[in-house]
Design a protein that fits this description.
heterotrimer, A mainly alpha (106), B mainly alpha (186), C mainly alpha (627), A: 106 residues, mainly alpha
Chain lengths: 106, 186, 627
């Protein structure tokens, strides 16, 4: 069978769900950030698949790849910043485990 | 043919992703991420997105993974074998399954006109004969120039911000110059 | 004339001005008030002349629209309304001048005149009103003025209580009035009196509804005009300053009830059953109040019960089917009663007393007051040729020849005797006989000295004299003079305008009864002082009943204590526990409780929040999907 857009999309959905699970189920702040990377990558997979398979003139299809580049860029920036925050957090609280960071509560 | 390649690479990617979220060893989880990133780069290649595959490997597999490893190194307090998952696991699992179902159904029922097989975005015709790289570059610097510039500004801002955040007070920075593994508050 | 509305408008304006700027006005606004009412009097004369030329007219302007109908307010210039305008403005003017001296030095001098203006404005608006809605508004305004003036010296608890009593008692009647008006509106679709009259004449209204309407309106009239059983507020209203008693509770406001029925008489003609009720109430009131007046000891209270009795006579005349005669008596009574009250004020001013047992022999010391008082009093008792004689005679004639049966005439004649008795008593006790003595401590020794008294100044006696003269001659307008067909015919605009008529035997009988009773009483008081005491000893229960005013107040108080206050307690409990604690505090407490329970949602843990967000996003996606 031929390679269809649906393949890319299902893969994207799978990666996204796994990443979502990671964000929600991991304890360490660092690993949560890692899972966020997975989310972003899932989106990129979908976008690239669309760029390759959608019925549009090429100069419109290239937007999928362009957008994916932007996403990579932003995620790189974000992860740098996020890690800085985690370091800060670690220095202030002595832990990077999210379930010990519960002072803003009732 | 490309379908088989796709499936193989896809499996690799998914396995890597699962490793990220399920492994009990932090470093092994990070290395699983590396594998997942490489897998994604492979997917990009299947879709004729060479430039992107390049970028993916360079940025993710290269820089991002290193950043993560550094962060892990700097935030360690105890030994390695502690439970890395939080009490919310079952709920998270349900949510993930729900998301997957929802997304898949959405994709299945969306009717987007498709081409028959993955096609390069390069324009090949009599007049111009460009490669994928050129098309992407062309788009980035002409049509999407402004977002491009903004993206670079964002990178700059993030970099400055990260430095400002991570440096802390002057005293702290000076005192921690050599080995920066300070524990607790300074 | 379309400017008739100025008659109430000018005093209304004066009220507002005095209220806001009274402090800085000359005489604290008193002169402004007097000026305003004088202006109203001038307008009366102009309107009277105009009406003689052009006939009665109605002017109105649109007020507001609601539910598809337009409501107006306007003035109806007619003989009956102008009569009232004349009475109100003239008597008000006299009394306000009198008050300049009488209320001198009072702390709230300015406020007194302000409320006088307010009252005058409301009363004038009431009598000029061309539709019942406007009339009702003015009716309430008059009640307000009365309340404020009765309770003028509210530092005295009895005054505050009296004001409250007056307002509440009349309020009960007012509810009836309102319902009656609304009933009429429902049946005819209009508040305007002319429209209602037309509908009644054309027999378009359901008889039961009409009977109920007239009865309820009569309740309102009975309240304001102190008919049994609503009469209890009027004697207590004497707590107010004497000029107030003269104006409001003798001449004007209490006449409003009589006026109301008289002006709506075309409707009442169609409900004879209610007319019977009116006659019955009037007769009872006339006789009962007169009997109580015989034993009262406070001068103003005697006059108050006398007022109630005379209002009963007016109601009786209305019940007999003679609104013109009722208005004639209203006119005579207004002037005469004003004289009596102002005279009582003058006596009070001169002797610092109001108890008649402490007075006596004042004729020599206060001649002007005495003369005017006597003239007015015997006029009301029915002595010819004074004004009251003619009106009383006409009332008796209407009762005997009209639609009522003979029993009413008997009651009326007994009432005439009773009123003669109390009249003679009050005149004799105050102005004749030996001056009473009071104990005084002079230089350490207790002796009995004659009580001091002196005649009052001109500002006080002047108005009294004017009013007395007018009161004495009111009888004259009942006769035919040239073109003028006599007051009675003029009022009712009957085709066969007629002057006063006499039924000789009745006239003679009533005059003899009146004069005879008075002479008997004077003789008893003068020559046989012990006879009164002997009578009292013979019929102690009669004495007690009369002194306790037929126990009305006691019954009412019991009803209030047992029934109304209990009900109020119940309502209060409901309001406190159910409405407040449950209804209002309830949601507040519930909110607090919920907040207390729900705060644990804020776990502070990042992953909980992230999970919540994810669930939310999924739910949104599902909902979007379902579209």
């Amino acid at each position: 069978m031929d390679l269809e857009l649906l393949h890319f999309q299902v893969l994207s959905a799978a990666l996204f769900s796994i990443g979502l699970y990671g964000v929600l189920a991991r304890r360490s702040a660092v690993l949560i950030l890692v899972s966020i990377e997975l989310l972003l990558n899932a989106v990129n997979v979908n976008l690239i698949g669309q760029a390759a398979l959608i019925e549009r003139p090429p100069d419109e299809r290239v937007f999928g790849q362009v957008l994916a580049i932007f996403i990579i860029t932003i995620s790189a920036a974000e992860i740098g910043l996020a890690m800085a925050i985690v370091l800060r957090l670690f220095r202030n609280r002595g832990t990077a485990n999210t379930d010990e960071l519960d002072t803003m509560k009732w | 043919m490309s379908v088989i390649v796709f499936y193989v690479v896809a499996v690799v990617t998914v396995v890597g992703a699962l490793g990220v979220v399920l492994d009990r060893n932090v470093v092994r989880a990070t290395l699983s991420l590396l594998i997942a990133m490489l897998g994604v780069a492979g997917i990009f290649l299947v879709a004729f997105a060479e430039f992107l595959a390049l970028a993916q490997i360079l940025i993710y597999a290269g820089a991002v993974t290193i950043v993560i490893l550094f962060a892990i190194m700097l935030t360690r307090t105890t030994d390695l074998n502690i439970n890395l998952d939080n009490p919310q696991r079952p709920v998270a699992f349900l949510i993930a399954v729900g998301a997957f179902v929802l997304l898949t159904l959405t994709f299945v029922y969306s009717d987007v006109p498709q081409l028959e097989e993955p096609t390069n975005v390069a324009v090949t015709s009599a007049e111009s004969n460009s490669t994928g790289f050129e098309t992407v570059g062309d788009a980035l610097f002409n049509q999407w120039a402004i977002p491009f510039e903004i993206a670079s500004v964002i990178l700059l801002v993030a970099m400055v911000g990260a430095i400002a955040l991570a440096r802390g007070d002057d005293q702290e920075a000076l005192a921690d110059a050599p080995g920066e593994a300070s524990e607790g508050s300074a | 004339m379309e400017y008739a509305f100025l008659a109430p408008a000018i005093p209304a304006g004066a009220f507002v001005v005095i209220l806001l700027f009274g402090r800085w006005l000359p005489g604290k606004g008193a002169y402004l008030s007097i000026g305003a009412i004088a202006a109203s009097l001038v307008i009366f004369f102009i309107a009277l002349a105009d009406m003689n030329d052009n006939g009665p007219e109605v002017f109105s302007i649109d007020w507001f629209e609601a539910a598809g109908s337009t409501f107006t307010w306007g003035v109806s210039v007619s003989p009956i309304s102008l009569t009232m305008v004349g009475i109100v403005s003239f008597v008000s003017l006299m009394i306000q001048v009198y008050s300049l001296k009488y209320m001198e030095g009072d702390d709230r001098f300015g406020w007194y005149f302000a409320v006088h203006s307010l009252f005058a404005a409301a009363m004038l608006a009431l009598v000029l009103a061309d539709n019942l809605l406007f009339l009702y508004v003015a009716w309430e305004g008059v009640g307000l003025g009365s309340y404020l003036l009765i309770g003028f010296w509210w530092e005295r608890k009895s005054a505050a209580e009296a004001a409250k009593k007056a307002f509440i008692t009349t309020r009960i009647g007012d509810v009836g009035l309102l319902i009656g008006i609304i009933l009429l509106f429902r049946e005819t679709g209009s508040f305007e009196m002319s429209a209602i009259f037309n509908a009644v004449e054309a027999d378009q209204i359901n008889k039961t509804a009409l009977n109920w309407a007239t009865f309820l309106i009569f309740l309102g009239a009975a309240g304001k005009s102190a008919q049994v059983p609503f009469h209890v507020w009027l004697p207590d209203a004497m707590e107010g300053p004497t000029p107030v008693s003269a104006l409001i509770h003798a001449a004007t406001m209490v006449a409003a009830g009589v006026f109301l029925i008289a002006v709506l008489f075309p409707i009442y003609e169609a409900t004879p059953f209610v007319l019977d009720i009116i006659a019955g109430v009037g007769a009872t009131t006339a006789l009962g109040a007169a009997m109580v007046a015989i034993v009262m000891t406070d001068m103003k209270r005697i006059l108050a019960y006398s007022t109630v009795s005379h209002l009963g006579f007016m109601m009786l005349a209305l019940g007999a089917g003679a609104p013109g005669i009722a208005m004639l008596h209203l006119l005579a009574h207004a002037f005469a009663k004003a004289v009596l009250f102002l005279g009582a004020g003058s006596v009070n001013h001169g002797t610092q007393q109001t108890d008649v047992r402490m007075m006596g022999g004042l004729f020599r010391k206060m001649p002007i007051t005495a003369m005017t008082f006597i003239i007015a009093a015997i006029s009301l008792a029915g002595v010819p040729p004074l004004g009251g004689f003619f009106s009383k005679d006409e009332i008796l004639r209407a009762v005997s020849e009209g639609r009522l049966n003979e029993a009413y005439l008997v009651i009326a004649l007994v009432a005439v005797v009773a009123s003669a008795i109390y009249t003679a008593r009050i005149i004799y006790k105050v102005f004749f006989g030996e001056p009473s003595t009071i104990e005084k401590v002079v230089r350490g020794k207790t002796t009995r000295v004659r009580s001091e008294a002196h005649e009052s100044p001109l500002a006080i006696t002047g108005p009294i004299v004017l009013l007395a003269i007018l009161g004495a001659i009111t009888g004259a307008i009942a006769f035919e003079w040239g073109d003028f067909g006599g007051y009675i015919g003029w009022i009712t605009q009957a085709d066969a305008a007629h002057g006063i008529e006499f039924t000789i035997w009745l006239t003679v009988v009533s005059a003899v009864l009146a004069i005879g009773s008075m002479l008997v009483v004077v003789r008893m008081l003068k020559s046989y002082p012990g006879s009164i005491a002997a009578l009292r000893a013979r019929f102690p229960w009669a004495q007690r009943t009369l002194e306790q005013k037929f126990y009305f107040d006691e019954v009412y108080q019991w009803a209030i204590d047992r029934l109304i206050l209990a009900l109020a307690g119940l309502v209060g409990w409901f309001d406190r526990r159910v409405v407040n604690d449950e209804g209002i505090d309830g949601p507040a407490k519930a909110t607090g409780w919920w907040a207390n329970e729900l705060r644990f949602l804020q776990t502070g843990l990042f992953y909980n929040y992230a999970a919540a967000m994810a669930i939310g996003a999924i739910v949104a996606g599902v909902v979007w999907w379902a579209q």
